[in-house]
Amino acid sequence: MKNFISKLNWRLILVHVLATYFFVFGIKLLSFFSDIEAVKVLLTNREEPVGDDYVFRIGMINLYNFYSGCAAIILVFIISLILCKKYRWYWGNSLIVFIFSMTMYWLGYTGWTYVKIVLLMPGTIFKQIEPEFITNILILLTFGVLFLFNKRIIRFVETGRFTNCQVTEPVS
């Protein structure tokens, strides 16, 4: 147990949790495109008849939305494991990120209601829903990718500094 704790890297865990956060909400926004017409009706609160299957369509959107977040956590876990192997980091860090992220997601403790005001602001310059969603998806996924693959962040994970220190070369 002592050996396990000594191998943990809190910087790696923090960075990968943040990357997971961005991936989850980017992919959750992407899931709305499974039935964008029903989402438009839901977001615009139109009082026109929507059909008998509208409640079913909204239920399916909610189902896709929830499970796409789970899929995003699994995707980042796999990417994190690959990066741990590539840079010779301890794989237990990725496991802790996965368990922590999945637990917070299932319990609903993501803080999305507070953070979305800032993160979804760039998309509000568009009048239509599709360009707004696409802009926000691209921004969220870009941040997620940067947190995982940026050399400066990798250097921070390894050394604790953002200076020009040597980064461990990946295994060939």
TrEMBL record:
Keywords: Membrane, Transmembrane, Transmembrane helix. This is Uncharacterized protein. The chain crosses the membrane at residues 12-34, 54-83, 95-113, 133-149.
